[in-house]
Model the fold of this input.
Amino acid sequence: MRKICFATRNIHKIQEVKAKLGDDVHIISLDELGCKEELPETTGTIEGNSRQKAGYIWEKYQVDCFADDSGLEVKALNGAPGVDSAFYAGSRIFADNITLLLKNMDGISKREAQFKTVITLVIQGQYHQFEGIIKGQILYEPKGKDGFGYDPVFLPEGAQESFAEMDISKKNLISHRAKATEKLIKFLESL
Ligand code: ITT
Done:
């Protein structure tokens, strides 16, 4: 079985990606590697930060690995919070980030947005990127208790429920992360 480190500290990402990967890939955590420090995320773009996180682990530990950098891009806010999604309101507290987002969208009726994930895989020192995007709308108030981050205020295109009203298997059929992960799986199968 192939062993790959998933360079993340976000347990929700691990749950979602593991559910897609199934038993074919054994995920090694950062703790198992002995990596305790914060991964660098300083490039200012989702693509760049994804590459930076995976590259950090490859350079330091020389293990095959992948990283996921994601963000919510709201059209009326010129793509914000985007690469700053995790710390939008100044901390990682999801409820605070949602409150600030809804405040910044007060009075805005054009509510188009998209989630974007870029996965960077480093395998034997070679870098590969896989992107996943889902379009949708920002709700006027949070709905649902599942998921994480901005899931309670994101209504995916064609859906009747927010991401936070879906269980993980339902979100995993359509999400940005699921799409990027499907591309990752196809690539690994082709090796
Ligand atoms: P790692 O860097 O350790 O992987 P992180 O949470 O810091 O974890 P990001 O830098 O990619 O991850 O930040 C993305 C933020 O965007 C995340 O904290 C959420 O607030 C939000 N986000 C990403 N994917 C999401 C999803 O599927 N549903 C809801 N919010 C999401």
Remarks:
- Residues 2-190 form a domain with the Maf protein fold (CATH 3.90.950.10).
